[in-house]
Sequence to fold (443 residues):
Amino acid sequence: MAEMVTGYSEMDVVMAAADTCVLRIEGLSARLDGKLIVDSVSLSVDRGEVVGVVGANGSGKTTLLRTIAGLLDADSGEVIVAGLDSSISDSFSRRERARKVVYMPQLAESHPFTAFEAVLMGRYPHLGRFELEGSGDRDLAWAAMERTSTEELVNRKLDTLSGGERQRVTLARVLVQQADVLLMDEPTASLDLRHQILTMDLVRKEARERNAGAIVILHDLSLAARYCDRLVVLYEGKKIAEGTPWEVLTPGNLRSAFGVEGLVEPDPVTGKPHVLLLGSENSSSNDLVGAGRTIHLICGAGSGRELMHQLRVAGYEVTAGVLGTGDSDREAAERLGLKYVVSPPFASISDEQHAAHMALIQAADHVVLLPMAVGMNNVRNVAAASAASKLIVVEPSAAERLDSDTGVADFTDGIAEELRRGLIEKFGEVPASTLLFELARGG
Fold:
């Protein structure tokens, strides 16, 4: 076989990839009561990696993990755990599989065993038939209870513990099993903030230090972004997004997977994505950040479409400037029922239209000037912005600077550019990523 330029053969590369991958799922589908719940999901987990699975209730997250764990039969597809085919079913192989895969359910079991006895059960896959736990197993169980801050519960019966305490004891059992793959279904659901952090710290440490892999279902998106190397988004049983937290946690994915509008910004402490939910179409208007406030948008050619929707979901009343027939922003404004000033296509703004626009500006709490291409027909939209008492000028992105159709191209022989420069000198300029936070602060 020919050698690659790196000095490694193709087979070397394939073998190295196999050594790195601890779990591979290919085209996995599963049904419950005849209904398809997981639909052709493929993903892989490397050693040392924590993969988060997120999605709305009923999206198939728990069924996916239970199928990977072998607790549910797959309808189709394949699960390979560290080279072990999931189809193996004899008693020895089940024990071997338990040494490779551990599943932590959503709800911790309640039974009359003591917490220590429950944790020690995690060592059973490592014992031979009729073999009893030794001192080494007990030492491992005690160490796991110390790591999970459950040592004070050692002699308590599980059915006397709170849900959060039982969940931490279950985590200790997971740790003591020392499996190659950790499958964890909402391990932080019943925990207070301190123990949520403790739990995710332990999961990440297990993956890193033991060269294991973990799949964790989480509802807290910011927590998932902080602790997971990659995220997978499920919607109606299908994988609709996969990648780093920054790649996955986008307003579009939040809208598609959860039906909510949200903002994503860097966490000031960790630098990881932090998700701020604005609301949904069904949110009570009185509880929303924009309740009772009006935002006026000076936009065009699609520059305001997404923002219109986000602002409406956040509870703001939204108005827009002069928009001509056929403009995509005008189409969006009509669908959302927004007030705006009507203009024929490609016609210059008349005195009457300009006056109507000025009235909307003066009635707004904030005016937002978005990056857009400006010609002589709509330059008065930009001029009208000077009448705003509170104006936010949105800085164009690098792509918008380069795109003469949808960016900030000036077709007015410099008139629009000069107007915009004067507004920036007076009011400043903010990037689009911080716009909704600026509005939420209400300054």
